[in-house]
Amino acid sequence: MTSLSVDPLEQWEDMKNVFPLLYKQARINFSVVASSVPCERLFLKAGATMNQARNRLTSSRMEKLLFMADFSEDEWFS
């Protein structure tokens, strides 16, 4: 058992040669952003996209619109 003051990423760095597959999974799981801001931004964009004039958008089309809206102008025209 480890204490709560130990950084789990540092511990997994020490064990990456013993458990290489679990190490990859731990890097993915322990690097999750601990904030709801990205999710709230997405809901805000979705609310702005799905308005009275666009009330018949399918979920697939909505997903594509939100994905494309995430690109900057430089990424679109480079």
From TrEMBL:
<protein>
    <recommendedName>
        <fullName>HAT C-terminal dimerisation domain-containing protein</fullName>
    </recommendedName>
</protein>
<feature type="domain" description="HAT C-terminal dimerisation">
    <location>
        <begin position="6"/>
        <end position="70"/>
    </location>
</feature>
<dbReference type="GO" id="GO:0046983">
    <property type="term" value="F:protein dimerization activity"/>
</dbReference>
<dbReference type="InterPro" id="IPR012337">
    <property type="entry name" value="RNaseH-like_sf"/>
</dbReference>
<dbReference type="InterPro" id="IPR008906">
    <property type="entry name" value="HATC_C_dom"/>
</dbReference>
<dbReference type="Pfam" id="PF05699">
    <property type="entry name" value="Dimer_Tnp_hAT"/>
</dbReference>
